[in-house]
Amino acid sequence: MKPGGHTAALPILAALLCACGDTGSEPGGPGGSGAAGGPVGIVTASGVPMIALPGGEFLMGSDRGNADEAPVHRVRVSPFLMDKFEVTHALFRQAQLPNPSRWQNDANQPVERVRWRDAKQYCNERSLLENLTPCYDEKTADWDCDYTANGYRLPTEAEWEYACRAGSVGAYDFGTPDRLRQYAWFADNAGQQTHVVGMKKPNSWGLFDLYGNVSEWCEDVYDPAYYGASPAEDPVGPPNTGQDVRRVMRGGSWQASADMCRASYRRGERTGDSDACFYTDYCGFRCVRRATAAELDALPHAARP
């Protein structure tokens, strides 16, 4: 299966952005809450498949993982759209950006060796392609993010984990780690390289490759103790102190162990923005954006995941 758009019509999406209800959970505990009807597929103006996710609450982190995953805390996120697939070589070319990737055998492989700022530049270019307002101010040192803009940006760490969990509370939304091969390219099956996106099963909300292939940049500054002080509503991470700043990287990759593919696993990665020799060939990303119900209704809709 290669990534592609869908055009089957669906009802209006206003209900997706309204009050929340229970979406269910894995056996063994309560899941997050989301809008009735659940996620819906759309196709953007430039032809990129995305999933419109309902806002809701979930339990973020893990008390059974690494120290930086604790404490488990309840977080509410607003509705947002997330790329169905990781950003590929084809999409990078569409934005007319130089491709730093090691593996470019297929246009539908994910880009990698991407610096944090290069990912943000792609977000801005894609916003301009669709006549949206860019989120990132390129005149500031950190390319500060305007979360009120309707353009594309990197997900917050909370948005990423909310999307990955898909209403579940376990380490993987599909259940036990013995099933990971069905959902992810990781150290045990990737053959030491990336693969075409969308070849494994998606998670319960229709998002592919969250557990493997390439790890994904988030917007947040990384702080191993942040969860102890995280706000409960749409957290965006700690402020930038300007000292050895690392950004959050989420999701497994072609070289990750099964443990590193867990939904709550997090780490800090140096951005590579000032490094002329950035060869971290597991760093990729996908985009998110906020959209009104009217904006969603104007886009082609795809079958529900």
Task: Kindly describe this structure.
It is a single chain. This protein is an alpha+beta fold and 305 residues long. It has a single domain, classed as Alpha-Beta Complex (paralog of FGE (formylglycine-generating enzyme)). It contains 4 helices and 12 strands, in the order E-E-E-E-E-E-E-H-H-H-E-E-E-E-E-H. A 4-stranded antiparallel beta sheet has the order 3-4-7-12, with no helix packed on it. A hairpin with a 5-residue loop joins strand 3 and strand 4. The longest helix has 14 residues. The chain is globular and about 45 Å long.
Describe this protein with a few key phrases.
single chain, 305 residues, alpha+beta, paralog of FGE (formylglycine-generating enzyme), four-stranded antiparallel β-sheet, four-stranded mixed β-sheet, 4 helices, 11% helix, globular, disordered N terminus
SSE map:
Blueprint lengths: L19 E3 L10 E3 L4 E4 L5 E5 L2 E5 L12 E5 L2 E4 L5 H6 L21 H14 L27 H9 L49 E7 L24 E5 L15 E5 L12 E2 L3 E2 L3 H5 L8
Parallel strand pairs: 8-11
Antiparallel strand pairs: 1-2, 3-4, 4-7, 5-6, 7-12, 8-9, 9-10
CATH class assignment: Alpha Beta
Mean pLDDT: 87
What is the tally of beta strands? 12
If strands are numbered along the chain, what order do they take across the biggest sheet?
A: 3-4-7-12
Distance between the termini: 15 Å
Task: Give the helix tally.
Answer: 4
Classify the secondary structure makeup into a structural class.
Answer: alpha+beta
Main sheet overview: 4 strands, antiparallel
What string gives the helices and strands in order? Answer: EEEEEEEHHHEEEEEH
Portion in helices: 10-25%
Radius of gyration over alpha carbons?
18 Å
- Do you know the CATH topology? paralog of FGE (formylglycine-generating enzyme)
Number of domains: 1
CATH homologous group name: paralog of FGE (formylglycine-generating enzyme)
Report strand %.
15-25%
User: Runs with pLDDT <50, length 5+?
Assistant: 1-36
Shape descriptor: globular
Architecture per CATH nomenclature, i.e. the level-2 architecture: Alpha-Beta Complex
